[in-house]
Write a structure and sequence with these properties.
This protein has about 250 residues and is of the alpha/beta class. It has 3 domains: about 45 residues, no CATH class; about 150 residues, no CATH class; about 35 residues, no CATH class. The protein has a 4-stranded parallel sheet, with helices on both faces.
């Protein structure tokens, strides 16, 4: 997978320290035989430079995938809510690198270090170009969908332009929340660097948990006593049943 040495991709404006040199050697060895590699290094050791180095391996998007993103076909859905061009995206080779961070301020740090990194944040961080009194999150297209097509066709929207750029980038940074919100077929990457990975478990729980209160269970006529169990399979089964009832409701 790694040819030439990882050191060849180290940012040219910097000189690797001995610690970074040793770390890259270990990463190089780990990436040859493993899908996941955990890197634990102290503050100030230059982990951001390591992430940038890894991005050098990541490659470029195919012309087909580029077209699917740029013309928004990758996001088109049928009446059942299925992505029409999902398979077309999935058959394209993975490419590029994402650096995922917990906070927007960490994204800004990467942006200040590397002028070639693309940054994607949430809609509330972008001003609507149709009406500058609003962010994209509350833009006119949210209540007048016909406007959105015009914005797409004329590339007016700062957020969607940033999203397309990040998805087609060989080196981009997103926060975890944004990454989890994207459909799987548009975010396949050769390399994903999870910054502050010690926080990843908590972030996953936060994004994929649903809080259910006692009153809601009563309304759905679910017997609380039947839910008390130490059996994982049974717990999983009633959770699926509960999700079904919530979806129907």
């Amino acid at each position: 997978m790694i040819e030439p040495s990882l050191l060849a991709y180290f940012p040219e404006q910097y000189t690797p320290t001995q610690q970074q040199h040793n770390l890259l050697k270990k990463l190089e060895s780990g990436l040859k035989n493993n899908k996941f590699v955990v890197c634990c290094a102290p503050t100030g050791s230059g982990k951001s430079l390591i992430a940038k180095t890894l991005a050098g391996l990541a490659g470029e998007p195919s012309p087909e995938f580029t077209d699917l993103i740029k013309n928004y076909s990758a996001y088109k859905q049928d009446f059942g809510g299925n992505f029409t061009y999902e398979e077309d995206c999935l058959v394209q080779p993975a490419f590029g690198a994402f650096v995922l961070t917990i906070t927007k301020s960490l994204q800004d740090q990467y942006n200040s270090l590397f002028n070639d990194i693309d940054v994607l944040k949430g809609k509330s961080n972008y001003t609507c170009n149709v009406d500058e009194n609003f962010t994209v999150e509350l833009a006119p297209c949210t209540f007048a969908p016909s406007i959105k097509d015009d914005c797409f066709n004329k590339n007016k929207c700062a957020y969607y332009n940033a999203r397309n750029t990040a998805l087609l980038s060989d080196f981009a940074t997103l926060n975890y929340k944004m990454f989890f919100s994207l459909p799987g077929h548009v975010k396949r990457k050769n390399i994903i660097v999870c910054d502050e990975a010690s926080e990843l478990e908590e972030e996953l729980v936060r994004q994929f948990s649903a809080e259910i209160n006692y009153e809601k269970l009563k309304q759905m006529d679910i017997n609380i006593q039947t839910l008390i169990t130490n059996n994982k399979e049974r717990t999983r089964a009633w959770m699926y049943q509960l999700i079904e009832k919530i979806n129907v409701a």
